[in-house]
Amino acid sequence: MAETTLTDTDTTTSAPTARIGRFGPYGGQYVPETIMPALEELDRDFRAVIVDAEFQAELGRLLADYVGRPTPIYEARGFAARIGSGPVWLKREDLAHTGAHKINNALGQGLLAKRMGKRRIIAETGAGQHGVATATVCAMLGLECVVYMGEEDIRRQALNVYRMRLLGAEVRPVTSGTRTLKDAISEAFRDWVTTIQDSYYLIGSAVGPHPYPEIVKRFQSVISTEARAQIIERLGGLPQRVVACVGGGSNAIGSFAAFVDDRDVEIVGVEAGGRGSGLGDNAATLQTGAPGVLHGAYSYVLQDADGQIVGTHSISAGLDYPGVGPEHSFLKDAGRVRYDAIGDRDALDAFFLLSQTEGILPALEPAHALAWVAQNPIPGVTLVTLSGRGDKDVHTVAEAMGQEGALR
Amino acid sequence: MTRFTSTFERLRADGVCGLFPYLTAGYPDRATSRDLALAALEAGADGFEIGVPFSDPLADGATLQRANARALEGGATLDTALELAQYIRARAPDAPLALMTYSNPLLRRGETGFARALAAAGADGAIVPDLPGEESASLGAALAAEGMDLVQMLAPTSPDIRLARVGALARGFVYCVALVGVTGARDQVAGDLGPFLARVRAVTSTPLVVGFGISRPEHVHAVAAAGADGVIVASALVDLLERSGNDLQAARIYLTEMKAATTRAVLA
Q1: DSSP string covering A89-111
Q2: Fewest C-beta in 10 Å: which of A185, A358, B19, B40?
Q3: Helix A129-141 and helix A158-166: axis angle, to 10°?
Q4: Residue B210 forms beta bridges with which residues?
Q5: What is the mean pLDDT of each run of 10 residues along chain A (408 residues)?
């Protein structure tokens, strides 16, 4: 795995007024004082392991033998032909162990937690993929695992709840607020504030206070480091466009990282447009939100005129979040990444289209990216991250189709 | 001299620790939160922490989450908290008032706008539980420009180097978090509160106010005996209102008992 240099979030000073962990104005550490010493410890230990040869060797071994990396890239010819586009290549994170990209970060942070001597892992989950990945890594590393999950998500992702319990994790239902990912993260933070001395909070998305966005990016960057080398090897050059879905933005930041400096590569992040553009009807934070603070970082947030965080809607539990990772806010303002939104209905169409043209059931999250690709065909090469497989969503899809009365 | 300074000087001269009830603005509704403030003043409250309701109160336990949610359902906003401050100021000219708000409602108003609104409402400062010392420079300056204090928080987990760093920023008082955790009534005060306060005392002469988990007169007495200048009572007050169906007379009696325990003298 190639090492990128840490420049944008370098912490050379710990003075109280230092603007550490910032992507432009975004990021920072907006957390209670109780947590601050733990974040300092985490920052220090993270910086130590990323230059530690032994740690990197262990991570590399497990990424290969346990996760099954590198995941392949696959040219989806049937899908491209149907949408009338140039070549569409899929980065197959759905083929990683546990069925999604979430394992990359869960493994990296799990090893870090173990190195820090932590025995108990806390995680939040929306669609359940990060919860499953964390429960998996904890089982393998012998760590206690508690996963917070909103009641609404427990209902729509019952399969993943059962998987986590099979893996020995305790799934704690969250009944406050919107009962989805936002409140699961809040509850995980509350647990961590209380158990800070012996627990590690293994956050699953590129959100949260510094250094989390940087840690998650580091461990997810394997997606684009591999994909960039693979596509150059196959095609002898770079893709014209790189596309990924964005909820909190972990698969997207990992998919973009190695291409950000390739100025000719167009990068697109696709958010959840839900059922419409009204506040509360979608989770398109970068489209309809405004900068603010949620879960420890300054970033775009879906909020009302009084600064209250609003509820979101998406057919995809993994994108159903009113915030977004701070680096995405920076990349949007800098104009380096184009962010757009795709609604529930179009995501469902893309779910069927990939299933029927390629024999691949995509998760509803990357189905948003696929729908955007279908609506924006280009003659050149598109690389899309297929961040997870759709088995977990079969029930949700069947329910949505039942409401419409027929398969389309 | 600010109201914080004069109040803590008076309390020190009297050899007592001040009682600072926390009121969630608009909880259980606007009128009742005003009446609760009056009941608290009758009980001898020395000042108030006025909470701005927020949808995602990260540092709060179940009780204050419910209070926040109920206040929001009733339409409460930052302005509701400012109005409550104004209401109390008109009736208690000398009582220090600190607004407690999470970062986002504050940023939505803008730091300068927030500071001006605070000053106009007759408040004395702000407490922002998700704004650690590292992130507080710009708000601290905006508040100072309006004569308002930004209260810093310290926790038992803060190592000495952080105590010194954050302590150097202290204005008004230092909010000492009594436990490792979120807000909410507990059975007892943490055993290491005394050593923690002593560590904070070593880095700042600013008055120390203890909050989180304080619910009984014996807790207040323990905090006073540990040398704190003030104590904040929050969740326990909400618990009482929930239990009693918003009985303000019960709240007044409860706070009177809490106030009576603020003496540093050893109880017989």
Answers
A1: EEEEGGGSGGGBTHHHHHHHHHH
A2: A358
A3: 10
A4: B176, B231
A5: 36 43 96 96 97 98 98 98 98 98 98 97 95 98 98 89 97 92 95 94 98 98 98 98 98 98 98 96 97 98 97 94 98 98 98 98 98 98 98 92 63
Nearest to A29 among B104, B134, B182 (CB): B134
CA trace torsion A166, A172, A178, A180 (10° rounding): -30
CA distances from A130 to A43, A142, A248, B79 (A): 22, 18, 12, 39
Structure confidence by residue, pLDDT tens digits, B184-238: 999 999 889 999 999 999 999 999 999 999 999 999 999 999 999 999 999 999 9
Chain B residues whose beta carbon lies within 8 Å of the beta carbon of residue A307? 54, 78, 104-109
**Does residue B49 have an active-site annotation?**
yes
Contacts of B135 in chain A (CB under 8 A): 28-30
Domains of chain B: 3-263 (3.20.20.70)
Calculate Rg over the CA atoms of chain B: 17
Q: Which residue is listed with tokens 């709840």?
A: A161
ipTM, 2 decimals? 0.96
For chain A positions 158-197, those within 8 Å of chain B (CB to CB) are: 176-177, 182-183, 186, 189-190, 193-194, 196-197
Within 8 A of A22 by CB-CB distance, chain B residues are: none
**Tokens 């962010």, residue located:** A339
Q: Is the pLDDT at B52 greater than 70, yes or no?
A: yes
Most A CBs within 10 A among B135, B160, B165, B199, hence the mutation to make, goes to: B135
Strands A337-343 and A26-27: what pairing?
A: unpaired
CA distance A249 to chain B (A): 20
* Structure confidence at residue B268 (pLDDT): 42
Q: What is the pTM of this model?
A: 0.95
Active site residue B111: no
Q: Does residue A133 belong to the interface with chain B, where contact is any CB pair within 8 Å?
A: no
- Mean pLDDT confidence for B230-254: 97
Question: Measured between CB atoms, which of A17, A35, A194 is closest to B137?
Answer: A17
Is residue A286 within 8 A of residue A336, CB to CB? The reply is no
B9, B35, B49, B94: the active-site residue: B49
* Chain B contact present for A203, CB below 8 A: no
- Give the number of residues written for chain B: 268
How many other C-beta atoms lie within 10 A of the C-beta of residue B252? Answer: 18
Chain B residue numbers touching A298 (CB-CB < 8 A) = 107
Q: In this structure, what DSSP letter does residue A30 have?
A: -
> Which residues of chain A from 265 to 324 reach within 8 Å of chain B, CB to CB?
291-296, 298, 301, 303, 305-310
The pLDDT of residue A5 is: 34
The answer to whether A375 touches A140, Cβ cutoff 8 Å, is no
Tokens linked to B124: 């004395």
The shortest CB-CB distance from B157 to any of A29, A30, A34 is to A34
Verify whether the Cβ–Cβ distance B177 to A30 is below 8 Å. no
- Measuring CA to CA, how many Å separate A24 from each of A186, A281, A331? 25, 29, 9
**What H or E segment, with its residue span, contains residue A338?**
strand A337-343
- Are A115 and A85 in contact by the 8 Å Cβ rule? The answer is no
Contact call for residues B268 and B55 (beta carbons, < 8 A): no
